Amino acid sequence: MARKLKTYQTSVGFFDLAIAAPSMKAALEAWDADSNLFHQGAAKESDDPDVTAATMAKPGVVLRRSVGTDRPFSEHAELNTDLGGGGPTKVSRKPKGSKRSGVPLAPSTRLPSGRPLAYEREQRRRELEREGRGRQAEGA
User: Fold this and answer.
1) How far apart are CA 4 and CA 86, in angstroms?
2) pTM of this prediction?
């Protein structure tokens, strides 16, 4: 007695694959899958009437079509040559700015050079600290 065939579908590489097989295991073997694509969510049982009709016409044969197309499945599918739009598109970029919250410092906290006043204070503090260490080393 022949087992009832089901239609299974997956996407591998550049092709969508479909097969009419008695079990998921048989479908995986026909696809030469190294892992359980059904468990990973990469394969499924198909209920699409067009896919089912094509696979039932050739049970046990792996049928292909280019990924992302609605072409019918066939044994020898060609790659999709229409890969999208009409050439490269220009990517708009955000203007470079500070990584701060976007709130500018008040004018009184900036020097005429444009650097923040706090930076200048910290730089001066470090210079004084270095000078103090130098004096302490001379006195010892």
Assistant:
1) 47
2) 0.55
| Rg value, the chain, Cα | 34
CB atoms within 10 A of CB 55: 25
Beta strands in 1-140 (DSSP E): 6-12, 15-21, 43-45, 63-66
Q: How far apart are CA 63 and CA 7, in angstroms?
A: 11
pLDDT in tens, 42-54: 999 999 999 999 9
Contact criterion met (CB below 8 Å) for 44 and 9: yes
Q: What is the pLDDT of residues 2-37, one digit of tens each?
A: 679 999 999 888 889 999 999 999 999 999 998 999
Q: Are strands 63-66 and 43-45 parallel, antiparallel or unpaired?
A: unpaired
CB of 11 within 8 A of CB of 44?
A: no
